[in-house]
Amino acid sequence: MYETILVEHRGPVALVTLNRPKALNALSDQLVTDLGHAIDAAEADDNIGAIVITGSEKAFAAGADIKEVARFTYMDVYQSNFITAKWERVARCRKPVVAAVAGYALGGGCELAMMCDFILAADNVKFGQPEITIGTIPGAGGTQRLTRFVGKSKAMEMVLTGRNMDAAEAERTGLVSRIVPMAELVDEAVRVAERIANLSRPIAMMAKESVNKAYETTLAEGVAFERRLMHATFAVEDRKEGMTAFTEKRQPVWKHC
Ligand code: CAA
């Protein structure tokens, strides 16, 4: 169905595997288009409650496809709004998205991982923004999201030198939520995504929206936004079910409405 990705449903989880092994999953226009369509499909599918995006053991993605990009002129990139416009589809997904990252996550690969809601990474992971070494700078949010994740000093060093960050540093700096042994990475990411998908889906969407607000606004505005969304949970049937189930000492039965 897709040229450059594989999509598999594992229960309520859509597992999307980037699949250009010969190019270390370089993010060609076709791949980014396929990924966008897969997100569209997962969002439209009521059976899917969460998405996992992964790559191979060697590479989550080694960045934008340099061979494709090398021939672009200024007008090509300006008129097509390269890179961000299409790639942002992942960041705009309203259902929870987990990145399961092993091997190289460089340039656009690092940026794609950071567009997901959180990152589980394998012990062999290497994050980096090496664009400066090929004469350009990150263009899919790298200078912005990396700085928010790891702070100015480390982000600046990585963007200015192009050096990679290993698993221990990524965990220490909060770029990833957890490091997982390579052999368990995808199963663990699916397990976590399934856990989320099996909770109330509208409530999970509200929780995600509220956390994301923290990146876009002041603390006072963010806390006010959170309070209003928390009030909105009281209009959701699942909120009533969750609290009733607690008081009745039973598991809640979510209706996702
Ligand atoms: N684009 C296109 N092809 C790529 C690629 C990329 N980003 N990364 C790797 N490949 C291809 C290689 O050209 C090679 O193909 P051939 O066999 O046809 O020559 C194949 O994948 C395997 O790669 P290597 O032989 O280089 O594998 P390695 O293990 O020796 O090195 C690596 C791995 C360190 C990741 C190295 O491939 C590399 O440095 N890749 C480029 C990383 C990079 O600069 N990414 C940033 C791209 S720019 C960007 O993302 C944003 C932007 O444009 C603004």
From TrEMBL:
Its EC number is 4.2.1.17. The keyword rRNA-binding does not apply. The keyword Lipoprotein does not apply. Keywords: Lyase. GO terms for molecular function: enoyl-CoA hydratase activity. Belongs to the enoyl-CoA hydratase/isomerase family. This is Enoyl-CoA hydratase.
